Every structure is written in structure tokens, then in C-alpha cells.
Write the C-alpha cells for this entry.
Amino acid sequence: MAASASVPVVAPEFTQQAVGYPSLFLLVLIGALVPVVPTGALVSSAAVVAFHRAAPLSMALVFVTASLAAFLGDIALYWLGRRGMRSRNGSRWLEAIRERAPEDRLAQAQHKLADHGVAVLVLSRLVPAGRLPVMLACLVAKWPVRRFVRGNLPACLAWAATYQLIGVLGGSLFDRPWQGVLAAIVLTVLISVAPGLWRRLRGTATG
């Protein structure tokens, strides 16, 4: 009995944090490199859980984890894209960026990048499906990695703060965390599909 009493008990909340933050970091990092993971929904869901814990440190850790993972993932993808631009055969990373950056979106991004510079890079992460066309425009314009880093840092901070606020909003509407997570996911999905629906409606109206 004495031996069993001396074994330290790990708090469930500590275990959840020890697993949750590294998982959030890896998923957001992978989502930045492979743009099929709904990283915004992940950040919003993590923010809902942190909100219901009522711990300011948890909210801060979600923000730091998400923004750092997004930043490192973007830098890695941009570096791989630059290698692909210099290579005769390109690279699968560069092709992945090109596949998700249609010609009309790329031309628009290039025009805005020439006019407004780094500010466009900051806004691109807040616009659904806006990150990769602007990143490809930076690659075509042969921006050095250092210049891309200067613009991408505030972009990732603004992105993490925006989706964390969406999570806080979802968490504040409901008493149970799972309800807030569901609301946050619905909000992020609506935000992501709204621009595409708007473009289709405009195309139908003009056509």
C-alpha cells in the first residue's frame, strides 16, 4: 500500500495538454505543407477546448503553437518551392502549389503583390484559398526567403488570432465543449466555402 501511495498521479488535464499541443503543432505543420488539412478548423477547435478550461495560459499556448507551426510550414513549403523553381524538373511541392493556384488567381495575386508588396502576403492567409496563389506569385517574382519570412510572420500571427477568435466565439455560445467545437467547425467551413460560392454566383449572374 505504501509503495502504491508513493506513485505520483498525473492529472488528466496535464495529460491532455501534453498530447494536445504537440498534436496541434504537427497537424498545422502538415496542413501548411500539404494543403488538404483544415488547419483553421483545428485551431478553432483547440481554442474552444482552451476557452472552456478558463485558463489564460491554455489560450496563449494554442496561439503560440498554431502560429509557430503555420510559420514553419509556410517557410518550409516556400523553400521547397524555390528549389523546384531552380530545378529543371521542378518538384512535387511546386506542382502542388501550382495545382491550387489557378491562372486567374495567380495573375490577380501577382498584380496585387506588385502594387502592395508584403501587405498582400499578410492578407493572403486570412482569405480562404488565398495563401498558395500569393506564395506562387512570390516564387515567380523570385522573392528571397528572408523577404518572404518578414511578410509571413505577421500573416501567421494574424491567421492564428483570427481562427482562435472564431473558436472563442463558438465556445462562448455553448456550455459543452463538443457543441462549441461543432459550431467552430461549421463557422470555419462556411468561411472557407463562401468566396467560392460568391464567385460562382457572380459568374452565373454575369453569364
